[in-house]
Design goal:
heterodimer; A: about 260 residues; mainly alpha; MetI-like fold; flat; disordered C terminus; B: about 270 residues; alpha/beta; Rossmann fold; 6-stranded mixed β-sheet; 4-stranded antiparallel β-sheet; about 35% helix
């Protein structure tokens, strides 16, 4: 009998292996043509065969994603703090920000191509556009939810707005910030790949489009899997960082005595 | 010469016909209606009254966090126009910062109040020692390095008291600080507060709806009316200190309690 905690550790792998097995067996039994749904083994073979190309394009996608994400985090943090601490900025900016966020970013890519040409820049900007909004909203929410009584305590000690922001606002909004990071990094990846699919000759998105135009479905799937894998890895990095920095917010109940 | 004498004896906190309106000055809610109240330096006074009578508003006015519609507030001989910088505060909710240990929470005011904020880094050890002493006085020294969620409600409230006092404020404002505690912890904390206060008499305004608490701790108890709040009765409580919990069952004590209670009941019937 395995213990509950070791089951909890193993369950993600069991689910992954199970899904892949069902997929593989299904493909073989039903004999789906490989240009419609290739089996995992064929995808793995394709991934190995085109490893040099996949690595090259993968690194490009990683590069545009991370760059766009970092820009998104910076802009989101600055705007989030501004919106969170100033009612005036909040009232002024919110309608326009929400309107902006409602625009499908795919529709912006052609415009970016007109301005910047195809390639790296539109991909970075699309990643940026998708990733900055969750950061902004969460940082602003974190700052706006400071306990009013705590603010009273600090103000009656002569604390400036800056003191309150540094001592309470920013540390207090860290859990919100990290939650947003985890959403944003995956959105940035989506943005990069979408932009590469439409307007690039480099990156995983481009690799998938060109593979699909020659009915190399295995390679399309290989591209998807690389993107998913990158997403999981980066997400994992931020989740670990979050646990380290804001463990206090997700602690288990631990009573004295 | 007479004027001189008045200044010498002037109360530490003095509200003169203080009125407070929330919202629009014409159509808003009148929370305080011409409150006049004098608190001598080093006194501990209690304010009681039916719920919603503006007791908390009174504290906001004294600390300068809320602006008066009319009248004036004077603290330490100076008119109050904005937030005071010397006040310690504690509320019903202890509001500790969850990412800090108890000791770090208690030391928070030192990072803000001048001149401590400029000396804290250099003399951290000395300040930490002072904070630990304070924690020991309220009986939670061994929890200094624990995080707030590892403390019970009563312990958090003790820490909250320490935080309100660490910078040695001249004025301590308490807004129902013991209201969410069980009866035994509450009574124990009364004696803790009395001990802290007798060690270094600062001026205290204690808001509470617990009459025994008010009478046990206070030099004077003031009763507020229902909204809009004003002071409708004041009772001097001159029992010698330190007072013991058993004293609260003595005839004189119960007598004052009964007077105040009937005054509030009368007010609520209106």
């Amino acid at each position: 009998m395995i213990s509950r905690s070791s089951l909890e550790r193993m369950i993600p792998w069991i689910v992954i292996v199970g899904t892949v097995s069902i997929w593989e067996i299904g493909c073989r039994i039903i004999a789906v043509p490989k240009y419609i749904l290739p089996s995992p083994s064929l995808i793995a073979i394709s991934l190995w065969e085109f490893r040099a190309a996949v690595a090259l394009h993968g690194l490009q996608t990683l590069y545009t994603t991370v760059l766009g994400f970092l820009l998104g985090v910076t802009a989101g943090m600055i705007l989030g703090v501004a919106v969170g601490i100033s009612r005036l900025v909040y009232s002024g900016m919110y309608p326009i920000l929400i309107g902006f966020n409602s625009i499908p970013k795919v529709a912006v890519v052609p415009l970016l191509v007109i301005w910047f040409g195809i390639g790296t820049i539109p991909a970075v900007i699309t990643a940026f556009l998708l990733s900055f909004f969750p950061i902004l909203v969460n940082v602003a929410t974190g700052l706006a939810t400071i306990e009013p009584e705590l603010e009273d305590v600090l103000r009656s000690l002569g604390a400036s707005k800056r003191d309150i922001l540094l001592k309470v606002g920013i540390p207090g909004s860290l859990p919100h910030f990290f939650a947003a990071l985890k959403v944003s990094i995956t959105l940035a990846l989506v943005g990069s790949v979408v932009s590469e699919t439409i307007a690039s000759n480099f990156g995983i998105g481009y690799l998938m489009v060109s593979a699909s135009s020659s009915f190399n479905t295995e390679l399309v799937f290989a591209g998807l899997i690389v993107v998913a894998f990158m997403g999981i890895i980066i997400y994992g990095i931020f989740a670990a960082l979050e646990q380290h920095l804001t463990g206090w917010a997700t602690r288990k109940q631990d009573y004295p005595c | 010469m007479l004027a001189f004498g008045i200044i010498m004896d002037s109360p530490f906190v003095f509200l003169d016909q203080a009125s407070l309106i929330y919202g629009d000055p014409k159509s808003g809610t009148l929370a305080l209606d011409g409150v006049t109240l004098a608190v001598p330096r080093g006194n501990l006074i209690g304010i009681v009254g039916p719920s919603g009578c503006g007791k908390s508003s009174l504290l906001k006015v004294v600390s300068g966090l809320a602006k008066l519609a009319s009248g004036s507030v004077t603290v330490g001989g100076k008119k109050v126009y904005g937030p005071l910088k010397i006040v310690g505060m504690a509320f019903q909710n202890p509001i500790m910062l969850p990412w800090r240990t108890t000791l770090q929470n208690v030391m928070l005011p030192l990072e803000i109040v001048e001149p401590h904020r400029f000396q804290l880094r250099r003399e951290y050890e000395r300040y930490a020692e002072r904070a630990k002493e304070l924690l020991a006085t309220v009986g939670i020294a061994e929890f200094a390095d624990k995080h707030p969620w590892q403390l019970s409600g009563g312990m958090q409230q003790r820490a909250s008291l320490c935080r309100a006092l660490i910078h040695e404020p001249e004025l301590l404002l308490l807004d129902e600080p013991f209201a969410s505690l069980d009866a035994f912890t509450r009574e124990e904390l009364w004696t803790v507060l009395q001990k802290l206060w007798m060690k270094r008499p600062f001026t205290v305004i204690l808001i509470t709806h617990e009459l025994r608490e008010a009478v046990f701790l206070s030099d004077a108890v003031h009763v507020m009316s229902t909204r809009p709040g004003k002071i409708i009765a004041s009772y001097d409580v001159s029992f010698p200190r330190p007072r013991l919990l058993e004293d609260t069952f003595r005839t004189e004590f119960v007598g004052i309690l009964r007077d105040i209670r009937s005054r509030i009941t009368q007010e609520r019937m209106k």
